[in-house]
């Protein structure tokens, strides 16, 4: 027996073949060409949808049939090199797993992208600029169609230099730089709608507990509150506007001051603040909505739908922000020349408000 002929030892320097028993090998371009009776060049032209190529309709159909029958999957990266762009849209966010809202932005963007034949590449940077730069660079290498750049709360932002190398849309944030397209919540409309819930139930002495932290939401929600009162002919009373840290402790701590103002209803900057106020009012032996009607903002489901009574509120439109960002990126939705596109904040009425009893 010739030991050399029967040896299974791989010669030094040669790569041993990688064997994966039971795992089917991908169908090749050559196999499709053989099945269709054409050249690999013809298959490539059909796969890459080169309509100007001189290939008969009958041949194109034969190639498509072979692709279907064999289960051939085109090399997406190779197609990207040919076309100069891919079927990916990037999404870079400063917080995904740590916030209750970012998931809805992703969900909206993903659904809208998929509807138009794109998939989402997502990077969570946790505000780390170095990681953000790397994430954008990776997306540029993949030749994404464009990038959505999102922050977890509505605020102005600086546009990373590398982001400008791609088509981009800001989501839940905005920039004063010329040409920076953005989609943001309509904070003024949201504040107006929150106040209108109370007005339509007969309340006229309505307090507003605003945030202490400067933000577009703080200014916009106050403006909306004032506009709603003005539309009803109710003079603005600065004494009915309080400020507190925008969390549960802030709302709880504002209870004493609120009760001094003799309001019949209160609109809170957010749902967490309203949850704290619920506790404070109960400690004073007061009932919601009998003694005080309460409206929140955000529609944070883990709070608004589960406090007792369930909280009337205004929803931040995170799902629609993500979806609108994709539509704008793909040119399916026009962007205003200067200002961000504002997305409507819908009301969600529950049982924390009822009609004011006659005096």
From TrEMBL:
<keyword id="KW-0805">Transcription regulation</keyword>
<dbReference type="InterPro" id="IPR000843">
    <property type="entry name" value="HTH_LacI"/>
</dbReference>
<dbReference type="GO" id="GO:0003677">
    <property type="term" value="F:DNA binding"/>
</dbReference>
<feature type="region of interest" description="Disordered">
    <location>
        <begin position="1"/>
        <end position="24"/>
    </location>
</feature>
<dbReference type="InterPro" id="IPR028082">
    <property type="entry name" value="Peripla_BP_I"/>
</dbReference>
<protein>
    <submittedName>
        <fullName>LacI family DNA-binding transcriptional regulator</fullName>
    </submittedName>
</protein>
<keyword id="KW-0238">DNA-binding</keyword>
<dbReference type="InterPro" id="IPR010982">
    <property type="entry name" value="Lambda_DNA-bd_dom_sf"/>
</dbReference>
<keyword id="KW-0678">Repressor</keyword>
<keyword id="KW-0804">Transcription</keyword>
<dbReference type="Pfam" id="PF00356">
    <property type="entry name" value="LacI"/>
</dbReference>
<feature type="domain" description="HTH lacI-type">
    <location>
        <begin position="27"/>
        <end position="83"/>
    </location>
</feature>
<dbReference type="Pfam" id="PF13377">
    <property type="entry name" value="Peripla_BP_3"/>
</dbReference>
<feature type="compositionally biased region" description="Polar residues">
    <location>
        <begin position="1"/>
        <end position="10"/>
    </location>
</feature>
<dbReference type="InterPro" id="IPR046335">
    <property type="entry name" value="LacI/GalR-like_sensor"/>
</dbReference>
